[in-house]
Amino acid sequence: MDRKLLNKWIDRAFYIIGLSVTLIGVVILLTLILDIFVDGVSRLGWQFLTSYPSRKPEEAGILSAWVGTLWIILLTGLIAFPLGVMAGIYLEEYAKKTWLSNLIEINIANLAGVPSIIYGLLGLGLFVRALAFDRSVIAGAATLAILVLPIIILSTREALRAVPFSIREASYALGATRWQTIQSQVLPAAMPGILTGTILAMSRAIGETAPLITIGALTYVAFLPTSPISSEFPYITIQGLFDAFSVLPIQIFNWVSRPQKGFFEDAAAGIIVLLIITFIMNGIAVWLRHRYQKKVRW
Fold first, then answer.
1. Does the pLDDT of residue 232 top 80, yes or no?
2. For residue 289, what are the contacts with CB-CB under 8 A and spacing of at least 6?
3. Alpha carbon distances (Å) from 237 to 79, 134, 240
4. Is residue 34 part of a domain?
């Protein structure tokens, strides 16, 4: 058989196999989502969103769980995003290639693949016990921030590398300093890639259960963290950071582990709410990414 014809058939076969595998994955995913919607859509409603957990499945709600999820994920982003971006900028733009920087890079890459339960043990030892944060919102957010930090650092470095070096040279030629070049030229051009990595990192964090269970997050919470807005001067309080909390993945896990059929419906409805929160957050991040992409013209 002609070599060119053989390569053509191989390419065609690989295309068919790849398409088939992709379609199988999509069909399985859609089947799972459809099954979840069939089981849980009947439980969705204002009462479900505004009620606390209960021993009776028909009265159970997810108020404390979804509010705790928003607290945790927003704090995780506020901690991990600036730290990850600054670390990525330093390693890519400032750090010299020494044995120490190489060691740091290797460890960051390895940490991105460490099981999440290990971060839970780290959070338990560092934040809960050593820093005495106890089983609080800030302890959970800090633990998840450490979990996603390597992903944000790696995505920041890759995004910075993708920016053409000619942009830096042009900025230097006009008399800009290194930081002025990074701040005004390189970082805006790399921001779409950085936000893409951040989207993936936060999507992982919002569904994590093992680290939060390890640090002692509660499965039954009949109260909300203290509001950051106070009626007394200075009208802002951080007490909510040190309150106990629960999140949707833990609440869903708790319901699934119960034998009553009604709790399975509650769990399915909780999964739908978690998916909606994830899609909304990802949508905001995607909008910000496209906004930066429109501003960048190489």
1. no
2. 191, 192, 195, 196, 199
3. 18, 18, 7
4. no
Domain count, the chain: 1
pLDDT digits (tens, 9 = 90+) for 10-41: 888 888 998 999 999 999 989 988 988 888 88
- Asked if residues 243 and 226 have their Cβ atoms less than 8 Å apart, the reply is yes
Whether residue 218 is contained in a domain is answered as: yes
What pLDDT, in 10s, does the model give residues 175-224? 888 888 988 888 888 888 888 888 888 888 888 888 888 887 776 777 78
Q: At what angle do helices 261-295 and 248-256 cross, to 10 degrees?
A: 150
Residue 250, in any domain of the structure: yes
**Entry pTM:** 0.85
Residue 20 resides in a domain: no
- Give 143's Cβ-side CA count (13 Å radius): 36
CATH code of the domain in which 236 resides: 1.10.3720.10
- Give the residue among 137, 123, 128 at the shortest CA–CA distance from 226: 137
Domain that holds residue 118: 44-295
> And the tokens for 209?
């259960």
**What's the Cα-to-Cα distance from 225 to each of 202, 238, 270, rounded to whole Å?**
21, 10, 20
